[in-house]
């Protein structure tokens, strides 16, 4: 929801009549992943997408009915009939979407808004079917145990909380079946990924731009004030003028951290690498040729970094796309980060 949240919040403040559509299950070559959303209004406003266009028209029609009746709807779309104008997915996949009236998130909205704004991880749990009284009831759950919402968590469903929090750790959303036969939709809102760049160099400019575009919180670290300035990097989320190892210690290097080291200066690179490789960061990459990297590995071994820790280092950095310009190298680095984040071999 974070990608359409600004528009959703504006429509709520303007007291628009809203329907929210969420992809809750997919099969085959579905065009959009589970958790994808589209928000529509009675006045014709549209934000987001659930199918890259192929069933949006039908969803909009059903959304109008949901807005008028106030009743949620669970709909499945399969393959389109190639010989007719039937609504369906030309890609050969199948999706199930849940369409709900906008007021159904009232019980969790204030906390949801606060958590999205402040980068707090959480889950939302929606009762999809199995009980007319409970359908579309919701619960927002934080890892610390806080629970907000209008869904009374069923006793037999408590065992599923562990499974739900595994989804949060994986950054995935999914349906979960209860023993009673009911279906819950667990939507994960993990910590936003952090792109942490060591080195205020020319390559950092397009790297920050791409990171911002695909939803990363961008952080640039460099103690050299002449390089690390807002004039040079007006688009970076956070600018830190400190030595890298000191700055990294102040940041929370959990699995939401993706670290890119670009300075080419061992005085800056090596302390940062030593700290980063011992952390839980999901990605650590360093710029440099193969020869430069061999010398770097020797220094890191002498500093006590183990072979297991060294195996986490992506160097030379980025996917080999054959590019040579700063923009092309930035694309290759972010492509590798996306590959790692999505756990694609």
Could you characterize what this model shows?
Residues 81-90 have low confidence and may be disordered. Helix 5 crosses helix 10 and helix 6 (244-250) runs parallel beside helix 7 (266-277). The longest helix is centred in the last third of the chain and has 16 residues, at 326-341. This protein has helices at residues 5-13, 56-69, 106-118, 160-170, 204-213, 244-250, 266-277, 290-302, 307-310, 326-341, and strands at 18-27, 37-41, 46-48, 73-77, 94-101, 122-129, 138-141, 147-149, 174-177, 183-189, 194-198, 217-221, 238-240, 257-261, 283-286, 313-314. The protein has a six-stranded parallel beta sheet, sandwiched between helices. Strands 3-2-1-5-4 form a five-stranded antiparallel beta sheet. The chain has three domains: 5-104, no CATH class; 106-189, no CATH class; 194-341, Rossmann fold. It is elongated. It is α/β, with parallel strands linked by helices and 345 residues long.
CATH class of the largest domain: Alpha Beta
Question: Helices and strands, in N-to-C order?
Answer: HEEEHEEHEEEHEEEHEEHEHEHHEH
Strand order of the largest sheet: 13-12-11-14-15-16
Shape summary? elongated
CATH topology (level 3) name of the largest domain? Rossmann fold
Number of strands: 16
Q: Please name the fourth-level CATH homologous superfamily of the largest domain.
A: NAD(P)-binding Rossmann-like Domain
Percent helix among the residues?
A: 25-40%
Regarding quaternary structure, what we see is single chain
Number of domains: 3
Quickly count the helices: 10
N- to C-terminal separation?
28 Å
Radius of gyration: 23 Å
Mean pLDDT: 88
- How would you characterize the largest beta sheet? 6 strands, parallel
| pLDDT < 50 stretches | 81-90
Named at the architecture level, the CATH assignment of the largest domain is 3-Layer(aba) Sandwich
Tell me what portion of residues adopts beta-strand conformation.
Answer: 15-25%
Structural class: alpha/beta
């Amino acid at each position: 929801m974070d990608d359409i949240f600004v528009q959703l919040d504006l429509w709520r403040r303007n007291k628009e009549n809203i329907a929210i559509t969420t992809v809750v299950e997919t099969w085959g070559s579905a065009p959009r992943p589970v958790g994808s959303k589209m928000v529509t209004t009675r006045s014709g406003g549209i934000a987001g997408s659930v199918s890259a266009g192929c069933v949006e028209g039908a969803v909009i029609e059903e959304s109008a009915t949901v807005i008028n009746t106030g009743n949620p709807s669970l709909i499945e779309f399969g393959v389109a009939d190639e010989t007719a104008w039937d609504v369906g997915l030309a890609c050969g996949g199948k999706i199930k979407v849940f369409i709900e009236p906008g007021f159904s998130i009232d019980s969790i909205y204030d906390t949801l808004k606060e958590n999205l704004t402040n980068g707090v991880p959480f889950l939302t749990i929606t009762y999809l079917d199995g009980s007319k009284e409970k359908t579309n009831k919701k619960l927002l759950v934080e890892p610390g145990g806080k629970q907000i919402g209008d869904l009374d968590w069923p006793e037999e469903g408590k065992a599923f909380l562990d499974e739900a929090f595994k989804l949060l750790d994986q950054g995935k959303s999914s349906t979960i079946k209860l023993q009673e036969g009911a279906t819950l939709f667990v939507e994960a809102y993990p910590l936003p990924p952090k792109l942490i760049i060591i080195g205020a160099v020319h390559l950092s400019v397009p790297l920050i731009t791409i990171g911002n575009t695909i939803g990363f919180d961008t952080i640039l670290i460099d103690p050299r004030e002449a390089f690390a300035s807002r004039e040079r990097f007006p688009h970076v989320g956070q600018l830190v003028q400190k030595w890298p190892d000191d700055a990294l210690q102040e940041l929370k290097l959990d699995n939401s951290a993706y670290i890119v080291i670009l300075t080419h200066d061992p005085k800056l690179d090596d302390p940062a690498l030593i700290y980063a490789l011992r952390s839980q960061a999901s990605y650590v990459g360093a710029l440099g040729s193969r020869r430069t990297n061999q010398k770097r590995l020797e220094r890191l071994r002498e500093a006590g970094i183990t072979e297991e820790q060294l195996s986490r280092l992506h160097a030379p950095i980025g996917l080999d796309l054959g590019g040579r310009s700063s923009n092309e190298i930035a694309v290759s680095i972010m492509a590798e980060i996306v590959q790692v984040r999505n756990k694609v071999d």
